[in-house]
Automatic annotation (TrEMBL):
Organism for this UniProt entry: Paenibacillus phytohabitans
Coiled-coil blocks: none
Superkingdom of this protein's organism: Bacteria
InterPro entries, per the entry: AAA+_ATPase, ABC_transporter-like_ATP-bd, ABC_transporter-like_CS, Metal_Ion_Import_ABC, P-loop_NTPase
Record domain ABC transporter: where: 2-239
SMART domains: AAA
Record keywords: ATP-binding, Nucleotide-binding, Transport
Name under which the protein is recorded: ATP-binding cassette domain-containing protein
Pfam families assigned to the protein according to its UniProt record, in alphabetical order: ABC_tran
One annotated GO molecular function: ATP binding
Length: 260
C-alpha cells in the first residue's frame, strides 16, 4: 500500500528525515507516533506528494512518485489535517460542506446533485450528526467539525485515509466520540495512516505503529511489539509504564519527573 525507501530530507543545515524506510501493507492501519518536531507531518507530506525527499523513494497505492501524476494519486487519498478546515465555508450547511468532498471543492457554485446530497446526509447520519446537517458549519463544536471532516473525506471513497492529529484540541468526551468514529472505519474498505503524540488514541482499528524520533525511525511493526515501555521511553524521553485495556494502550508517567 505504501512503501517508503531510505527517505531523507535536508533543509538548510538540518536533516529533517534521516534514512526512513517503512512498508505498510494492505490490511494494515498505521499510527505514526513521536514527539513534537520529530518529523511526522513531513512524512505525511511525502506520502501525499506535497514534499519530495532529498534522497529515497515513495510508492503509494502502486504509484511511484516521480514517475506518475501525483494529482491522480491524491484522488485516491483522503486527508484530514489542520489546514483544510480553515478554508471551508463556515456559513454553508454541514451537509453541503460534506458534499464538497465528492468533488474535492472547497465550495459549490452550482447545483448539487440529489444523489450527492443523499450520500452526504447518509454519512452524517452514520456519525450521529443528522440533527446538525442543515446547521451552518461554523456553528458546530470542534469535535462535530472533525466528524464532519471525516464524513467529507469518506464521501470520495478514498482507498487511503491520512489523518494528521485529528483529535488535537478536543476534550475527553469529544475525543472519545471522534475515536469511536475512527475505530468504525474497519467496517469500510479504507487503509488508515494516523499521526499523533498520544498513545491512548491508538484504538483497536490500528494494527501497526511507527515511532519517529529526531527524524529517524525508532521502531516499526505490530503495535504490541512496538508499544513497549522501553521503546516509548526512548521515543518520549520520559519514564513511563504502558497498560493495555480494551485493546488500547494507556500510558502512566512513572515517578521521577521528566528525565529517565
Ligand atoms: N521547510 C522547513 N525548513 C526547515 N525546517 C523545517 C521545515 N519544515 C519542517 N521543519 C522542521 O522539521 C522538523 C519536523 O517537522 P514536522 O512538522 O514534520 O514535525 P512533527 O513531528 O509533525 O511535529 P508536531 O508534532 O509538532 O506537529 C521540525 O523541527 C521543523 O521545525
Amino acid at each position: 500500500m505504501i512503501s517508503l525507501q531510505h527517505l531523507s530530507l535536508r533543509r538548510e543545515q538540518s536533516l529533517i528525515l534521516d534514512d526512513v524506510s517503512l512498508e505498510m501493507k494492505q490490511g494494515e492501519n498505521w499510527v505514526i507516533l513521536g514527539r513534537n518536531g520529530s518529523g511526522k507531518t513531513t512524512l505525511l507530506e511525502m506520502m501525499t506528494g506535497y514534499l519530495f525527499p532529498s534522497k529515497g523513494s515513495v510508492e503509494v497505492l502502486g504509484y511511484k512518485f516521480g514517475q506518475c501524476d501525483v494529482r491522480e494519486v491524491r484522488k485516491e487519498i483522503g486527508y484530514i489535517g489542520p489546514s483544510l478546515m480553515e478554508k471551508l465555508s463556515l456559513s454553508d450547511p454541514v451537509w453541503e460542506v460534506v458534499a464538497t468532498g465528492a468533488y474535492a471543492y472547497l465550495r459549490f457554485y452550482q447545483a448539487i446533485p440529489q444523489s450527492v446530497q443523499d450520500q452526504a446526509l447518509k454519512l452524517l447520519d452514520d456519525m450521529n450528526l443528522s440533527e446538525l446537517a442543515y446547521h451552518p458549519f461554523g456553528t458546530l463544536s470542534q469535535g462535530e467539525r472533525k466528524k464532519a471532516m471525516l464524513a467529507r473525506c469518506l464521501i470520495a471513497e478514498p482507498k487511503l485515509l491520512i489523518m494528521d492529529e485529528p483529535c488535537a484540541g478536543l476534550d475527553l468526551y469529544e475525543r472519545e466520540k471522534m475515536l469511536a468514529e475512527i475505530d468504525k472505519l474497519k467496517q469500510r474498505n479504507v487503509a488508515v495512516v494516523y499521526v499523533t503524540h498520544h498513545v491512548e488514541e491508538i484504538v483497536p482499528l490500528f494494527t501497526h505503529v511507527a515511532l519517529i524520533r529526531d527524524g529517524k525511525l525508532a521502531g516499526a511493526g505490530p503495535k504490541e511489539e512496538v508499544l513497549t515501555r522501553e521503546m516509548l521511553m526512548d521515543t518520549f524521553d520520559i519514564p513511563v509504564d504502558v497498560e493495555w485495556d480494551s485493546g488500547r494502550p494507556w500510558i502512566k508517567i512513572r515517578p521521577g519527573g521528566t528525565s529517565i
